[in-house]
Amino acid sequence: MSLRSRLVLAAAVLLGVLAVMSAILVTTVAHSEVAQLDGQLRSSFPFTRTIPSGHTPPEPPPLHRAFSASHVGAFYIASIAAGHRTVLSTPLGVASAVPELPPMKTTSPRNPVIATVGSLSGTITWRAILLRAVANRGEILIAIPMNHVASTLAALRFGLLVVGLVILVVLGAVGIWIVRLGLRPIDDVTEIASAIASGDRSRRVRPQRAGTEAARLSDAVNTMLDEQLELESRLRQFVADASHELRSPVSVIQGVTELWRVGELREGPAADEAMRRVGRASHQMSRLVEELLLLARLDEGQGITVSSVNLSRLVADVVSQVRESRPDRVIRVDPGHDVAVNADEGALRRVLDNLVTNAVRHTPSSTLVQVSVIEHDDDVELVVDDTGPGMTTEEVALAFDRFWQADLSRSAVGSGLGLAIVRGLVEAHGGAVKIHSRPGEGTTVRVIVPRGVGPRDVGA
Amino acid sequence: MSVEILSVEDDDNLAFVIAAALTAEGYGVARVATGTDALNATLAESAFDLIVLDVMLPDVDGYEVCQRLREAGNLTPVIFLTAMDSVGDKVRGLTIGADDYVTKPFSIEELTARVRSLLRRAGRVVAPVPQRFGEVQIDLDERTVSRGGALIDLSPTEFRLLAFLSRHAGHVLSRWQIIDNVWGYGFDGDPTIVESFISQLRRKVDTSPPTLIRTVRGVGYRLERD
After folding, report:
1. What residues of chain B lie within 8 A of the CB of A248, using their CB?
2. Residue A217 lies in domain
3. Which of A134, B36, B93, B125 could connect to B80 by a Cys-Cys bridge, CB 3.0–4.6 Å?
4. Does the B131-223 domain belong in CATH 1.10.10.10?
């Protein structure tokens, strides 16, 4: 059931309860009014009350004595003999109205039969008693007009109606307010969600008044949409960059095969060089594909297997490998003594290799590179420090972006994915990578890896 | 007259392929890897007939190289080599004063065709004399074939087939050599397509003796030289 129909139902129930209560109130008032009239009727013949039970009623006093002057203006009194009415008194204000005869006759004054009757002419109703007159000399009709009761009830009904209408209006206003404030944003969100589903991605929920649930809802929806769009454009950029990176090696392979086809590069040194180029291009492509797959696995949150790693040994190992390929560079190592960490050894090796290779690649040959391992209580820190040209704040901010490279030259052999992979691998360990760099002051990269659960001591 | 082309490409492998392709066409090729070197080489000597210029360069990008050349009054034709293929990039290149562009990954055929047409537009080369095989005359640049002066209407594939045969006139070409060159490495259809195209070509071109296109049984086909 929608919120709208619930609101309507609640209002209907409330109005129903009010209607029932009004009916009860009107009935109660009517009853008490009638009871009051009946009391007046009974008291109109005071002589009856003085009769003790079992006694013959005494001769009633003459009528003019039996009814006090105050009764005369309030009652219709008539004696009826042989079908002929002799009117003794008419009530003030309705003097022309004549009540009908009640269907039953009152035989015992102690137990009077009072009935509601209409008028012979006119619309007034009455409470009436038909008394047997003494010694069978006809009957006496005593009636009191109910026009007072009718007007009281009419006033009451009118009052209740007004109250009911006011409540109805208030309920309606409250309902509209709730719907406008609470439901229109939901309608908005629904409408915009379907617009977005059918392809219009730029649509946003319009801003609501601050502080309302609607504002929170629309803000949340808009934030979600923005983030989705951002993610999507990042992904698109990533795919575009990846295919861009593939273009050059593809062009090389394509070009060499095409030239071979038309009879070029078939023999001698040209053929050897062509094959070497093809080999390098395909190596570039396969490395790119491998790195992209690794990043995709890391993005999915998988890709590391944890075991106990002797970090000191690993650092020494990686540095000596880099030294072998770049014997001209001075790389200092402070590996600590058998620093242990629970991590993925292959991943850490790759992190270190990327960072040290980066430092060597992006600095002049004279620059010193320093690799250190620092132990803390809960984590270990790998620091790769150089005194090279450094980077600007903007460059540092971009450094982790996929495919970003400090110099646009593709002759620099990197793919632009190195630091993104470093960060992915370190974060997969629950660690963090920080770069501190200033132009002219060199670059410091700190990798912090939690020691993790498991044995701390690793044999040397 | 020898044609000298400057190739500006920072990717060493790609530079090799470009140079190999242009050399194979008979042009002289000089290679540089940076924008600065390109500017120095061009502005100093200005002896190049054409420049193949990569847009993405490590120092000064291709757009700027081209702009500076034009500002210096150097009107050497420029072909941009770009990995970007959005319309905006192309328009930018052409407004700056490039004469044409090739998008990576490109085919050698496309590059050399554009180089050829640009050189001819610039008046740097005289159009090659059409090849003659008996009555048949093949103009590779105009892409026309005529017999005894009357033009023969060939489909693009038929033309490529005839052009390939004519480039290797006198040599026997195998069915797969023909497929790789005429239909390309992406061909994955029925290789007997070669037979049907050869017979179509014969019906249109080889209308009277002596026979031009010969079948070498068990090996392939050959276009007879005069």
Report:
1. 11, 13-14, 83, 104-105
2. 213-299
3. B93
4. yes
